[in-house]
Amino acid sequence: MKSLTVFTPSYNRAYLLPQLYSSLCNQSSQDFIWLIVDDGSTDNSQELIKGWMTEDKIQIQYVYQENQGMHGAHNAAYANIKSEFNVCIDSDDFMPDNAVEIILRECENLDEKYAGILGLDANKNGEIIGTGIPESLTAVKLNELYSLHKIKGDKKIVYRTEIVKKYPKYPLYEKERFVPLDYLYLLIDQDYHLKPVNKILCIVEYQADGSSMNIFKQYRNHPNGFAFSRVSRIKYAKTFEERFKNAIHLVSSSFFANKLSWLFKSDKPLLVFTAVPFGILLNVYIRYKTKS
């Protein structure tokens, strides 16, 4: 069995997948399997991937499901992963030639307090996305990295598979296709640390059709998914500023979902009540930014 699963949720990304496939074929260590979760693609993704499987250059596992969104694809990935470690590389990203080698070396003899390792994302020019991780940190929780240490930019997480499987799946909401992935990461944060690795594990390219570039539309189109996420963010926030910001977003999402019952699901009801006027203003602002 391979030591690492590189999993990729994909929806109509046949035009981007060859870049990732090429980078995986070039890895200095081939001790991995590439798991592709096809989230209901209608392009030629299946034909393309099955062609690569016939080439047999790397080990590929292909899973198809009806469209559920990124979080649903993550659910499917975790259900199918059997390797000791796993990392998500999105369909519009790729890996440096030595990334798998670095991951396996850093994960070797990993202390039990660690759920995995935390590495860096970079752009095609080799510039780190956001900021690096302070060298003084030998163990960190993901949320603390941003809220307490003020680190910026996406980072790449490699998790132990047995740990990820202990936690609940992402919920699915009718007519919605997005739940923020940090729900799971927050739960893991409560029990484990991550080992910081100041090395580039992923080359990132943000696409015009990606979620990062359409965040206001995401807020409006997937309100229940975001409200669910805000409840957990309020509960596990490390600072008052973080809690209050998420309370404002919870109010806004509740109005978009026409489901004010979300306001009573937080363990900080007074904070949420105080945030109502600001949440209404945010809701109006998002409506303005996303009007046709």
UniProtKB/TrEMBL annotation:
Q: What class of enzyme is it?
A: transferase
Which keywords describe this protein according to UniProt? Glycosyltransferase, Membrane, Transferase, Transmembrane, Transmembrane helix
Q: Which CDD domains match?
A: Glyco_tranf_GTA_type (cd00761)
Q: Ranges for the Glycosyltransferase 2-like domain?
A: 5-112
Membrane-traversing stretches? 270-288
* Enzyme Commission numbers on file: 2.4.-.-
- Please name the GO terms that the record assigns under molecular function: glycosyltransferase activity
| A Pfam family | Glycos_transf_2
- Identify this protein by name: Glycosyltransferase family A protein
Please tell me the species this chain comes from. Flavobacterium zubiriense
